[in-house]
Design goal:
By secondary structure, this protein is mainly beta. Helix content is about 10%, strand content about 35%. The protein contains 2 helices and 15 strands. The N terminus is likely disordered. The structure holds 2-acetamido-2-deoxy-beta-D-glucopyranose (NAG) (2 copies). One 2-acetamido-2-deoxy-beta-D-glucopyranose binds next to loops.
Length: about 230
């Protein structure tokens, strides 16, 4: 019974908690002298959500996005010195996103701004020609826009996806000949967006005559780790 109640509570918390990681709180706002006074240019209040406001402010390099009265979006670079107030003052549902609160009459819901990810590119020095086994493949990844971007890689070596920004993510060696597709998944540190994905192919060759494969006699076919050793 208590277990059922426990999971019910977790469920409720998940449903009502603000957008992941980047929520700063509900801050009192002065309508006459706004702390968050900058509008992110033209936008449609009727379709404003926490995400559209965060990315609209991020596009202008502001640090924070503040939502007021269910649909208005303001940007700023500092949080009000008084600190966040009671959550109950941000009681207006976002017009375009009724599961979220977008401020109140005299309060704003503040989130960190964010930048849409765009222009992800992945390449390696093994793109133009095949590379010999056990040669270091140097990988190059870049993104045109984004904030706090982190990368996860899948090197197609059976190990699956790495965690965020692992050390040595930009180089790999393959000891078994074959064709590999390296994939990169970009997101911001708080996984705000859908992953941006890019891929590049690497062909790993065993130059004839240069590679010796010695297999344990009980194994009929060559497969690394299957009783075989490979010497280049
Ligand atoms: C990620 O979350 C942390 C903790 O809430 C926050 O300080 C940071 O600004 C967030 N970053 C982005 C890009 O949303
Ligand atoms: C992750 O690594 C990339 C490439 O080295 C770097 O530009 C980026 O700042 C790193 N992200 C974080 C959050 O440290």
């Amino acid at each position: 019974m208590s277990q059922i109640l426990g999971s019910f509570l977790v469920f409720v918390v998940l449903l009502t908690s603000p957008v992941s990681g980047a929520y700063e709180g509900c801050f009192a706002e002065s309508v006459r002298r706004r702390h968050f006074a900058i509008s992110p240019g033209d936008y449609s209040p009727e379709i404003t959500s926490t995400m559209t406001c965060r990315t609209a402010c991020g596009a202008f390099d502001y640090k924070y996005a503040a939502l007021a009265q269910g649909k208005f979006c303001f940007c700023g670079n500092t949080l009000p010195a008084a600190g966040p107030g009671s959550e109950s003052l941000c009681d207006v549902d976002c017009v375009a996103e009724p599961t979220q609160k977008c401020g109140g009459l005299k309060s704003v819901s503040v989130h960190t701004a964010s930048k849409m990810l765009a222009g992800l590119q992945l390449t390696s020095d093994a793109v133009s020609s095949p590379i010999a086994v056990s040669t270091l493949v140097t990988i190059d990844v870049s993104i045109a826009t984004g904030m706090d971007v982190t990368y996860q890689f899948d090197y197609d070596d059976g190990a699956g996806r790495t965690s965020n920004n692992v050390t040595d993510m930009l180089s790999r060696t393959y000891s078994v000949p074959g064709e590999y597709t390296i994939q990169v998944f970009a997101n911001d540190v708080n996984q705000t967006f859908q992953d941006s994905v890019a891929a590049t192919a690497v062909k790993v060759e065993a130059p004839p005559g240069l590679v010796e494969v010695e297999c344990d006699p009980v194994f009929a076919t060559f497969e690394e780790g299957n009783g075989c050793t490979l010497t280049v």
